[in-house]
């Protein structure tokens, strides 16, 4: 009710979080083991608000206990307006492969909209999941870390990535009052942005040893300038046969 009063357009119940501290409280993915309780919570929240209610679940607690089909039906009957399925079990956490077939099965089982989640790491993956599962939409999580271009079919050039990092860092530092802490928390983003670039491991190692914003900016600009030059040289190469 407080969320609705503050202007939220919908409320989402996360019954898929696998983090130990959450599960130990009986929350998050622990509710996958208590389908009737999950339904009761959903029903009570739905009765308390006038905006849409969505629920996110996982495939199940473990491979031996995959109950997404059962629990999605219970949640629908309890009043959920939409269900998101992360097609991994709690035991998998974020490892292994997401079972997209399960997303399709849930879609066929319920009459409310369903969202697929899991193993979306490129723009092409979005269309593939929609095609294979017929779900109504796709939730993107880790795939967007360091790659906001996942929402577009266009691939960015190295200098465009550099500019995005600099803008992101500026926003990050302006948001957090504790500048030293803000710098430390931003370094993980540099890891994600540079993933897949040649020789990025030594760059990341140096970044994690640096405490100066100015130095990190200089190192980041130099890193992407070098890769931009390499990209330009590669694009001008001509292959000859014989």
Explain what this protein looks like in three dimensions.
The chain is 50% helix and 11% strand. It contains 10 helices and 5 strands. The C terminus is likely disordered.
Concise overview:
It is built from 10 helices and 5 strands, in the order αβααβαβαβαβαααα. With 242 residues, it is an alpha/beta fold.
Please render the helix and strand layout as text.
Elements: H1 2-5, E1 11-14, H2 20-23, H3 35-48, E2 53-60, H4 68-78, E3 82-89, H5 100-109, E4 114-117, H6 123-133, E5 137-139, H7 158-175, H8 179-194, H9 200-209, H10 213-236
Parallel strand pairs: 1-2, 2-3, 3-4, 4-5
Low-confidence stretches: 232-242
**What composes the largest sheet?**
5 strands, parallel
Strand order within the widest sheet? 1-2-3-4-5
Average pLDDT over all residues: 90
- CA-to-CA gap between the ends? 73 Å
Number of strands: 5
Structural class, from secondary structure content? alpha/beta
Order of helices and strands: HEHHEHEHEHEHHHH
Radius of gyration: 22 Å
Number of helices: 10
How does the overall form come out from the CA principal axes?
A: elongated
Proportion in helices: 40-55%
Strand fraction: 5-15%
């Amino acid at each position: 009710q407080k969320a609705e009063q503050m202007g939220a357009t919908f409320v989402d119940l996360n019954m898929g979080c696998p983090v130990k501290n959450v599960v130990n409280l009986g929350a998050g993915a622990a509710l996958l083991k208590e389908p009737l309780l999950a339904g009761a919570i959903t029903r009570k929240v739905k009765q308390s608000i006038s905006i849409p209610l969505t629920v996110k679940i996982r495939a199940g607690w473990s491979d031996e206990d995959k109950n997404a089909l059962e629990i999605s039906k219970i949640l629908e009957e309890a009043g959920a307006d939409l269900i998101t399925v992360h097609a991994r079990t709690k035991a998998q956490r974020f490892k292994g492969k997401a079972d997209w077939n399960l997303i399709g099965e849930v879609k066929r089982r319920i009459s409310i909209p369903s969202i697929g989640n899991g193993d979306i790491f490129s723009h092409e993956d979005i269309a593939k999941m929609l095609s294979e599962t017929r779900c109504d939409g796709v939730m993107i999580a880790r795939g967007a870390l360091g790659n906001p271009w996942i929402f577009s079919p266009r691939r960015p050039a190295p200098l465009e990535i550099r500019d995005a990092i600099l803008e992101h860092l500026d926003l990050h530092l302006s948001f957090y009052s504790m500048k030293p802490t803000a710098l430390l928390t931003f370094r993980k983003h540099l890891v994600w942005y540079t993933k897949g670039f040649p020789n990025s491991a030594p760059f990341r190692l140096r970044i994690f040893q640096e405490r100066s914003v100015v130095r990190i900016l200089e190192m980041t600009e130099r890193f992407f300038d070098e890769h931009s030059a390499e990209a330009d040289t590669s694009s001008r190469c001509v292959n000859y046969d014989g």
